[in-house]
Amino acid sequence: MERVSSDIILEYLKGLVESKKPIPRELWLDAAFKLNLLRLDEGQLYSKMRQTVAQNKLEIFRAQDKRNVAAVELEIEATDEYRFMRDQEEKLEVIEEFVRLAKKNADLFM
After folding, report:
1. Average pLDDT over residues 76-94
2. b/e per residue, 24-61, with b = 16+ CB within 10 A?
3. How far apart are CA 39 and CA 24, in angstroms?
4. What tens digit of pLDDT does each residue of 3-44 get?
5. Is-contact 27 102, C-beta < 8 A?
6. Could you give phi then psi for residue 108, rounded to 5 degrees?
7. Element (H or E) spanning 76, and its range?
8. Fewer Cβ atoms within 10 A, N terminus or C terminus of the chain?
9. Average of pLDDT values for 42-63?
10. How far apart are CA 20 and CA 91, in angstroms?
11. Interatomic CA distance for residues 96 and 106, integer angstroms
């Protein structure tokens, strides 16, 4: 049996939106429920990514002769790790907004 992940759910919903198909209310609520549960995993992954980026910042900062925080930030922001962390942050925001909208939608139609 294939595992359900937030990526699979979001891709499926994105496909519906791109094909201009309406999302049935039951699917909307089911997806919100699953995404809300899976948000914990996504949040933990984001925390690990933030920790890795912070450790890299510290390494760069300690290696500098003239300590310059702005230069460290600039160097970190140019890395793929930082970009992946920001993408993960955006995914969390999308999940939270989707769940919030599903709750509002459920309140309106119940």
Report:
1. 97
2. eeeebeebbebbbebbeebeebbeebeeebeebbeebb
3. 22
4. 899 999 999 999 999 999 988 888 989 999 999 999 999 999
5. no
6. -70, -35
7. helix 69-77
8. N
9. 96
10. 22
11. 15
Tokens of 9: 């759910």
- How far are the Cα atoms of 68, 96, 98, 103, 110 from residue 34, in angstroms, in the given order? 44, 12, 11, 13, 20
Q: Give the dihedral of Cα atoms 16, 22, 26, 29; nearest 10 deg.
A: 70
What pTM value is reported for the model? 0.85
What is the Cα 36 distance to its own chain's centre? 12
Task: Report how far residue 110's alpha carbon sits from residue 105's, in angstroms, rounded to the nearest whole number.
Answer: 9
At 11, list the tokens: 């891709």
Q: Which residues contact 12 (CB under 8 A, 6 or more apart)?
A: 31
